[in-house]
Amino acid sequence: MSPLGNFLWLLLGGLVVGLGYIIGGAVLCLTVVGIPFGMQAIRLGVAVLTPFGKEVVPARSQTSLKLLFDVIWILLFGWEIALSHFFLAIVLGITIVGLPFARQHLKLVPIALLPFSQELA
User: Fold this and answer.
1) How far apart are CA 103 and CA 45, in angstroms?
2) Which residues of 51-80 are buried (b: 16+ CB within 10 A; e: fewer)?
3) CA distance 45 to 37
4) CB 41 within 8 A of CB 22
5) Residues of the chain with pLDDT under 50
6) What gap in Å lies between CA 112 and CA 4, rounded to an integer?
7) pLDDT at 2
8) Could you tell me the pTM of the whole model?
9) What integer best gives the mean pLDDT of the chain?
10) What distance in Å separates the CA atoms of residue 102 and residue 96, rounded to the nearest whole number?
11) Helices (H), the chain
12) Is residue 99 within 8 Å of 52, Cβ to Cβ?
């Protein structure tokens, strides 16, 4: 199911979401201050391209710097990204066909909110 789910995910909007993360990350990397956030956004974009068959896991190492970056991420744009994934999950969850895709968007909410503390593995 994972390869088929990932293929359908890309066709039904996952490619746009993933490219949005990657392009946004590239723009963030244009400034020295934005490089850690841009690299994280690019990593999220690559993970969002194929979410089926992956699970959310805590990051291997937790540091106070990662916590600080998570707080900055939430304040600047993380809450908006998480809300967009949540809203898309609600819209997709209305139909039976969209339920697997809604589940994937719900899986992406915690990563969109706290990307430095969690990974998609």
Assistant:
1) 17
2) bbebebeeeeeeeeebeebbeebbeeebee
3) 12
4) yes
5) none
6) 24
7) 84
8) 0.86
9) 91
10) 10
11) 2-9, 15-28, 35-49, 64-73, 79-93, 99-113
12) no
Contact 109, 82 (CB under 8 A): yes
β-bridge mates for residue 118, sequence order? 58
How far apart CA 7 and CA 82 sit, in angstroms, is 23
Domain that holds residue 35: 2-120
What's the total number of domains in the chain? 1
At which residue do the structure tokens 């949005």 appear? 20
Give the pair of three-digit tokens for residue 104.
């994937």
Answer for the pair 28, 37: CB distance below 8 angstroms, yes or no.
yes
- The per-residue pLDDT for 1 is 63
Side chain identity, residue 74: I
Residues across the chain: 121
At 69, the amino acid letter reads: F
The candidate with the shortest Cα–Cα distance to 98, out of 40, 3, 14, is 14
Distance in angstroms (rounded) separating the CA atoms of residues 20 and 52: 19
- Location of structure tokens 């899986």: 107
The answer to whether the CB of 44 falls within 8 A of the CB of 111 is yes
Q: Tell me, what's the pLDDT at 55?
A: 87
